[in-house]
């Protein structure tokens, strides 16, 4: 991979070939995106890998990718560095994303790598580097090299760092940043192309206005220049860049609601309709696309939001932030958002972007990342169970059997967070002998409900005459 510099990021993209001729009988798979290969009936190595991970037929994965209902974010450059491909879509398990990144206040590559390791070890399916402070390039390069899971970014965060004020950003500069990050190996990018000039006034009545950082920057640029969104104007050029490296579009919801009162309003749905148009354009040009969704939605509106996105965007995978179902829990927003996330996954979201306890309060640290990932692993798993995905409940049932038989070590092994489960048990019963005890410290040895249940079962079997007698020794009869 050719080394990149900040100067490269602001240079205009070079001329690219147009999308492959669908009538070409012998295309080269090495220059085809996943969706292009799928549409030609080819099963790529990445599709086979995803099929094995998901327990699906490779042909089903191919058909879902061809339809645009599943994406495999796998930049060709990141594949060279050891990326393990994964699929995002309704036929796959519900995925979760963990956000990491520095800020203008703090910057430390080692700390970001520790966040990455923690997120991946706990089960994050993708990680977004949302760095906005210093050393953005170095952090991104290190994160991509160290990550076995897909990495996402928000290119406008780097574009804004390279100018004095938002209105100084140029169209060529934006495209240059996208190409620069694609060349580094970024697998998917949040592109704020759906916010149009005519939509900005629709946010005037909102309590929280435009809460998307990228969306607010784009709105400021359009107001300053009196021109349309450059990402929208140059969308075909963007597609050429994304297609060259097979970077997946994650169309950013610039006008997502930032509180319950702003949810499901005219601004949000106007942008969603525009993102549907862009989804179709990107797929026509051989690009993979997913669509980002709202962050604050009352519980009674979640199903409607999922259904509306599927309709407007041709069932492109929906990637939602939360959603948070109440606004009164600062410090506990990983919990209120996980409630909404489980419902969103149940009703059709394909990936859930985690929220940490620090949401709305500060930059998450390693422990915040851990708590966010665990909350969202629970939400995603609950969604898979609710969707009756084959095999989704197997682990639950196995843990329940271990719990009933007081197999404490097996319970720990099956837990989403074994370390925490073991620690909490051992706080009151630390001795190894208690790992086989038929009680915990809550009920104690005399009043454990499961032990009592087993006694009741034994008495019921005896009363029904179902007691199995031990066989008599040989020769005892007669």
How would you describe what is shown here?
Pfam families: ThiC_Rad_SAM. Keywords: 4Fe-4S, Iron, Iron-sulfur, Lyase, Metal-binding, S-adenosyl-L-methionine, Thiamine biosynthesis, Zinc. Belongs to the ThiC family. Pathway: Cofactor biosynthesis; thiamine diphosphate biosynthesis. Catalyzes the synthesis of the hydroxymethylpyrimidine phosphate (HMP-P) moiety of thiamine from aminoimidazole ribotide (AIR) in a radical S-adenosyl-L-methionine (SAM)-dependent reaction. It is a single chain. This protein is α/β, with parallel strands linked by helices. It folds into two domains: about 30-385, Alpha-Beta Barrel (TIM Barrel); about 395-460, no CATH class. Helix content is about 45%, strand content about 10%. The protein has 20 helices and ten strands. The chain has helices at about 5-10, 35-40, 45-55, 60-65, 75-80, 110-120, 135-145, 155-160, 170-185, 215-225, 230-235, 235-245, 265-285, 300-310, 335-345, 365-385, 395-405, 410-415, 420-425, 450-465, and strands spanning about 70, 90, 95-100, 125-130, 150-155, 190, 250, 290-295, 320, 350-355. An eight-stranded parallel beta barrel has the order 3-4-5-6-7-8-9-10, surrounded by six helices. The chain has a two-stranded antiparallel sheet with strand order 1-2. Strand 9 (about 320), helix 15 (about 335-345) and strand 10 form a beta-alpha-beta unit. The longest helix is centred in the C-terminal third of the chain and has 21 residues, at about 365-385. The radius of gyration is 26 Å and the shape is globular. It starts with 5 loop residues before the first helix and ends in a 15-residue tail after the last helix. The model is unreliable at about 1-15 and about 475-478 (pLDDT under 50).
């Amino acid at each position: 991979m050719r080394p990149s510099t900040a100067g490269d990021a602001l240079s205009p993209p070079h001329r690219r070939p147009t999308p492959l001729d669908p009538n070409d009988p012998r295309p080269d798979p090495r220059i085809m995106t996943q969706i292009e290969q799928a549409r030609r009936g080819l099963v790529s190595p990445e599709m086979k890998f995803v099929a094995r991970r998901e327990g699906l037929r490779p042909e089903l994965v191919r058909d879902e990718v061809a339809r645009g209902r599943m994406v495999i974010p796998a930049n060709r450059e990141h594949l060279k560095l050891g990326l393990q491909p994964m699929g995002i879509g309704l036929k796959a398990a519900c995925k979760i994303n963990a956000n990491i990144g520095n800020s203008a206040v703090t910057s430390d590559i080692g700390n970001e790598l520790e966040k990455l390791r923690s997120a991946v070890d706990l089960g994050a399916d993708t990680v977004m580097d949302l760095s906005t402070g210093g050393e953005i390039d170095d952090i991104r390069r290190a994160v991509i090299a160290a990550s076995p899971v897909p990495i996402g970014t928000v290119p406008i965060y780097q574009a804004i760092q390279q100018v004095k004020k938002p209105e100084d950003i140029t169209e060529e500069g934006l495209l240059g940043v996208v190409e620069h990050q694609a060349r580094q190996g970024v697998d998917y990018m949040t592109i704020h192309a759906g916010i149009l000039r005519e939509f900005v006034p629709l946010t005037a009545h909102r309590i929280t206005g435009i809460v998307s950082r990228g969306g607010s920057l784009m709105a400021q640029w359009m107001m300053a220049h009196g021109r349309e969104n450059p990402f929208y104007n140059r969308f075909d050029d963007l597609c050429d860049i994304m297609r060259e490296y097979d970077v997946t579009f994650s169309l950013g919801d610039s006008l997502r609601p930032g509180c319950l009162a702003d949810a499901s309003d005219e601004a949000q749905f106007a942008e969603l309709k525009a993102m549907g148009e862009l989804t179709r354009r990107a797929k026509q040009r051989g690009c993979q696309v997913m669509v980002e969704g709202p962050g604050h939605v009352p519980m009674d509106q979640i199903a409607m939001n999922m259904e509306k996105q599927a309709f407007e965007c041709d069932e492109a995978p929906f990637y939602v932030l939360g959603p948070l179902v109440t606004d009164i829990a600062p410090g506990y927003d990983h919990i209120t958002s996980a409630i909404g996330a489980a419902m969103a996954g149940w009703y059709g979201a394909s990936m859930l972007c985690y929220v940490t306890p620090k949401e709305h309060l500060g930059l998450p640290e390693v422990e915040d990342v851990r708590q966010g990932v665990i909350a969202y692993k629970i939400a995603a798993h609950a969604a898979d169970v609710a969707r009756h995905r084959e095999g989704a409940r197997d682990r639950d049932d196995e843990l329940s059997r271990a719990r009933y038989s007081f197999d404490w070590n097996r319970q720990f092994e099956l837990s989403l967070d074994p370390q925490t489960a073991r620690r909490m048990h051992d706080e009151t019963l630390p001795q190894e002998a208690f790992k086989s005890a038929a009680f915990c410290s809550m009920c104690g040895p005399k009043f454990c409900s499961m032990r009592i249940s087993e006694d009741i079962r034994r008495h019921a079997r005896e009363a029904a005459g179902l007691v199995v007698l031990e066989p008599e020794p040989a020769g005892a009869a007669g």
